[in-house]
Amino acid sequence: xxxxxxxxxxxxxxxxxxxxxxxxxxxxxxxxxxxxxxxxxxxxxxxxxxxxxxxxxxxxxxxxxxxxxxxxxxxxxxxxxxxxxxxxxxxxxxxxxxxxxxxxxxxxxxxxxxxxxxxxxxxxxxxxxxxxxxxxxxxxxxxxxxxxxxxxxxxxxxxxxxxxxxxxxxxxxxxxxxxxxxxxxxxxxxxxxxxxxxxxxxxxxxxxxxxxxxxxxxxxxxxxxxxxxxxxxxxxxxxxxxxxxxxxxxxxxxxxxxxxxxxxxxxxxxxxxxxxxxxxxxxxxxxx
Length: 288
Known about the structure:
- The chain has eleven helices and five strands; from the N terminus they run H-H-H-H-H-H-E-E-E-H-E-H-H-E-H-H.
- It has helices at about 1-10, 15-25, 25-40, 60-75, 80-90, 95-105, 175-190, 205-210, 215-225, 240-255, 265-280, and strands at about 135-140, 150-155, 165-170, 195, 225-230.
- Strands 3-2-1-4-5 form a five-stranded mixed sheet, sandwiched between helices.
- Strand 2 (about 150-155) and strand 3 form a beta hairpin.
- This is Mobile element protein.
């Protein structure tokens, strides 16, 4: 359609001012195009910049260096995290989209649109901070091969998606949850309710036969007037489950870059990671 309008101007069937308005160009530019059309025909309407290098294109050496570092050190990073680390650790200032295109073209990253769709049942966030805190433990090789696998206990606020407490421990046990819950209470006070899975820490193994599913953890929370609820499935407490997946990606790499390989050192670094994580992904509560 634009080329037809330019042709109409050249044949005096459309005034330059009207053509400029429809094409989103200046009248002067339309007059230049008309002159080129009369001299060269339709080929004269092709942009003279076609096939030339963009003024904003990055040097190929910079792109090659970035891609080499991604292959060498950040092959399992997402584009956003890889972009951040290229800037923080290597001084390479690239946009996220540039890194995304580099990784996609090299086959390092698969865009979300090309992945199989995931279906989640939506649930509205709670209104206030502390109204519901989802808790879960994730057994994983948090230190890669530098140390044995261990468990990370995570407390995620439902209203803000904020990581409230992260605590590394040997395994999911009642004592470990007591330690993590004590750290939460000392920093934030009592939550209204804790939402967990149906692990034996939270629900008695003989609840179906005896009718009494209260555990030591449950009794302790009862004394503190904190409700404890057990989810029937993992998707029911999806916020903490998705947080675990994100932590298994970002947190593992942060620990690797900082050469942290002990639970004690990781617990000392956790508050700094939580603050940065909330600044990037946290949400404001709907109510105070």
